[in-house]
Amino acid sequence: MGFHGFFLFAILIPYISFGTSSHESQNLTSSSLNDLEGLIGFSSCLESAIPDWNSYASPDYCTWSGVTCVGTSVVRLELGSTRLMGKICESLVGLDQLRVLNLSDNLFTGSLPNTLFHLQNLEVMDLSNNHFEGPINTFICSSLPRLQVFKLSNNFFSGEIPGNLGNCSSLKHLSINGNDLSGSLPENIFLLQNLNELYLQGNKLSGPLSEGLGKLSNLVEFDISSNEFSGILPNIFGSLTRLKFFSAESNKFTGQLPASLVNSPSLQLLNMINNSLGGSINLNCSAMKNLTIVGLGSNQLRCPTPGSLSNCSRLEAIDLTGNHFNCGIPVNCNNLQSLTEIYLARARLHNLSSTLEVLSHCRNLSSVALTNNFHNEEMPQPQGQNLGFSNLKVLVLSNSQIKGSFPKWLSGCKMLQMLDLSWNHLSGSIPSWIGKLNNLYYLDLSNNSFTGNIPQGLTVVLTLQFRNLSLEGIIFAFPFYVNGNVRNAYKKVSSFRPSLLLSYNKLEGPIWPGFGNLKGLHVMDLKHNSLSGLIPWQLSGMTMLEILDLSHNRLSGEIPQSLIKLSFLSSFDVSYNELHGEIPEKGQFDTFPPTNFEGNRGLYYRHDTSGFMPSPPDEARAQPHHQKLEIIGFPFLFGALAGFLITIARSFASGWVFS
């Protein structure tokens, strides 16, 4: 039974023995005894206690946390997010009036007992976000006629989806996503006529999608993302007249989108990212009047049918990244006044000037990603006018080898929070007005050919002066990638660390002391430029700084001792400069490897135990060397002379010298 269960039982013996409960003048029936034993048994299998389940002050189980009764019958057991550990005992079958069982977001392990599926009155079972394992019970729906909500998501269940799930005729919500399930969808699952929400994403399910799906006429949300489904999508979406959300991202579907799908009047979200779909994009927005989010990136699609996307007047976000367009901008923004996000990276687009002109008519655009297009084109510089991106918060136009100077039209983008123009061939100076973009907190101009000084205006960017940034960061409809790196995927702007990235340019001049005002900056990367002068001691004012890379410049002087105050600094590199003096000790500096200081002939450690770079200046090394010769040399000469005289004296005394 375990200590917790025994303790509970000991507390309740008087109440059981005398046939009374804490309800005034109510007798314990056989049903309530079963409930009591069921709860005690459940507690006995736990490795962690539920605090008020073992209190002398509250022996009435109907008052225990997570327990709801009707009369003396337990009808709800809700212990989600209480960090419970252990297994689920079969004793729960004693709660024969239980309607809601919620044990989600805990640390339960093991397999599910068979008796758990004999609770005939159960309507909601939520065991999601635990560590359950093994196959899902094959008799799951044999004795659960009233089950409406069944959640097993984010566990470690394996094997196939039980075929008798179709017997849960009352089921409205089924989520078994985030497990290790395999095989194909059982045909019986398409008998669930009341099903509204079906979540199967994040498993290893495979095979074609059956036409039986069309029988689920009440389906509203359907997610099969991140599986191994293949083949052509069945043309059954005309039967799914209530479907609003369909996501099949990261599967192996081929062919074109079926006609019933691209004409669905109910659909609001369509996500087919990362498949092998082909043909032209042929969404019929005249029919798809409710469509707001479209994800068709990373397929093999060609340019859309003219006008197919331009009539989607409610469209808010579209991802067409990584397709084979080889054309100009595939949308006309005149009718897309609701559009806030557009992602067209790696889409083989050309004519940057025309693309920006078209997009400028989408007045509510806040996020634009055009990475890896327009190769070797010129950055447009409209004369006497801005392009009108008044609501733009995110612009990524990197990895395109674009030539020209810094775009002047960005001066009108007062809402800009994130700007990435890295890996191009932009040249000239960085304009001083960039410091007036007071919402800017992520700037990447690395790997270009910018010259001149770092704009002093960057030291007064208002957003970066606050230690605790409180940005109204937009939430992306699709994961946002940095430099195409899947590991750096973010769902909102504020997930990016506040950064100033100017590495691999031709910048000259000093590092401004005013950068110390940027208390909210996390990353400062200035490596591989021609910066000169001292490292300002004021940089210690950047109290949230995590990365500071000043390597491969022409900086001189000493490393300021004040930098040891940067308690969050996890990476510091000043290699290959012209620095001298002692390398600071204490604080985070004790964690940085010697390679981060190499290439500076005058730098040295005060106490070198590594054998690497014990390199104080020559004059610092010379003094101890002479002292050593002076101390050792004089005693040696004195001792040698004394020894010689003693030897001669003994020789005279013995007469040996005359023999």
Which key features would you list for this structure?
659 residues; alpha/beta; Leucine-rich repeat, LRR (right-handed beta-alpha superhelix); 21-stranded mixed sheet; 10-stranded parallel sheet; 24% strand; disordered N terminus
Quick summary of this structure?
It contains four helices and 41 strands. It has 659 residues and is of the alpha/beta class. A hairpin with a 2-residue loop joins β1 and β2 (73-78).
What shape does the CA trace take?
Answer: flat
Indicate the structural class: alpha/beta
Under CATH at level 1, the class of the domain at 316-507 stands as Alpha Beta
CATH superfamily of the domain at 316-507: Ribonuclease Inhibitor
Q: Could you describe the largest sheet, including whether it forms a barrel? A: 21 strands, mixed
**CATH fold label of the domain at 316-507:** Leucine-rich repeat, LRR (right-handed beta-alpha superhelix)
- Please tally the β strands and state the result: 41
Rg: 36 Å
Uncertain spans, ≥5 residues at pLDDT below 50?
A: 1-27, 614-659
Number of helices: 4
What is the distance, rounded to the nearest whole angstrom, between the alpha carbons of the first and last residues? 108 Å
Please state the average pLDDT score: 84
Range of strand content: 15-25%
Write the CATH architecture name of the domain at 316-507: Alpha-Beta Horseshoe
Oligomer: single chain
Task: Provide the helix percentage.
Answer: 10-25%
